[in-house]
């Protein structure tokens, strides 16, 4: 009986999880193509991509795997959603950027840049609301917070400033999109989680404004 219930719950949540991850990948790809600035982690991914010529979505996957390795001493437990997060977002980014290019019009680039956090925020609402495991970067944040008893907010800020600075030094694009993403993603995730999260999705999570699908 319990096994059947678990399978039913997975069937109910998995489509939301995958939809959310696809939307997140589309949002990131839109910001990459806009070339007006990226969120902190994607500045790092882009910087590594430019230094290595590895597609940015593939870098996203590789960095995600590396972050998961950092979970081991923190004793974090990945879920189905964690594994899907590592793979799906990166694949969607690379596939989308095969057909999505940077337009000449600044107006179109601005629209694409603004669409990025909206798509990512809505996707995060579906993803987090599915309750199938945190993203690798969020798991690192909460793991460090729990292990060392540091507040989640400062831990997230320190991580994102570190990856942002590292990405910028590697050649990642920091710009208006970076600011828009930083200011807009929290409210978007919070709204989306309330609107599209699965009822009774999971055990209590950190406040949505501190979380994303990463």
Structure in a nutshell:
The chain is mainly α and 214 residues long.
Description:
The chain has 214 residues and is an all-alpha fold. It has one domain (15-210). It is 74% helix and 0% strand. It has helices at 2-34, 40-52, 56-71, 80-97, 106-130, 136-148, 152-170, 176-196. The longest helix is centred in the first third of the chain and has 33 residues, at 2-34.
Which short descriptors sum up this protein?
single chain; 214 residues; mainly alpha; 8 helices; 0% strand; globular
* Rg over C-alpha atoms, rounded to the nearest angstrom: 17 Å
Rounded mean pLDDT score: 88
Shape: globular
Counted up, domains total 1
Largest sheet: none
Can you give the helix content as a percent range? Answer: over 70%
**Count of β-strands:** 0
Helix tally?
8
> Cα distance, first to last residue?
33 Å
Structural class estimated from helices and strands: mainly alpha
Poorly predicted segments: 201-209
**Topology pattern, helix = H, strand = E:** HHHHHHHH
Beta-strand content bin: under 5%
Give a topology summary:
Elements: H1 2-34, H2 40-52, H3 56-71, H4 80-97, H5 106-130, H6 136-148, H7 152-170, H8 176-196
């Amino acid at each position: 009986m319990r096994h059947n219930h678990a399978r039913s719950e997975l069937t109910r949540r998995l489509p939301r999880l995958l939809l959310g991850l696809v939307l997140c990948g589309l949002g990131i790809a839109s910001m990459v193509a806009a070339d007006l600035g990226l969120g902190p982690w994607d500045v790092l991914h882009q910087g590594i991509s430019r230094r290595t010529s590895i597609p940015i979505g593939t870098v996203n996957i590789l960095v995600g795997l590396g972050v998961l390795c950092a979970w081991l001493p923190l004793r974090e437990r990945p879920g189905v959603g964690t594994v899907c997060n590592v793979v799906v977002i990166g694949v969607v980014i690379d596939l989308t950027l095969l057909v999505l290019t940077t337009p000449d019009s600044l107006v179109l680039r601005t629209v694409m840049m603004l669409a990025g956090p909206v798509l990512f925020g809505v996707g995060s609402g579906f993803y987090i609301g599915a309750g199938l495991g945190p993203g690798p970067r969020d798991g690192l944040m909460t793991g460090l917070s729990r292990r060392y008893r540091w507040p989640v907010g400062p831990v997230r800020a320190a991580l994102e400033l570190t990856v942002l600075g590292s990405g910028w030094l590697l050649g990642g694009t920091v710009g208006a999109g970076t600011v828009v993403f930083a200011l807009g993603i929290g409210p978007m995730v919070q709204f989306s989680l309330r609107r599209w999260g699965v009822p009774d999705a999971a055990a209590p999570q950190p406040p949505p404004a501190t979380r994303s699908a990463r």
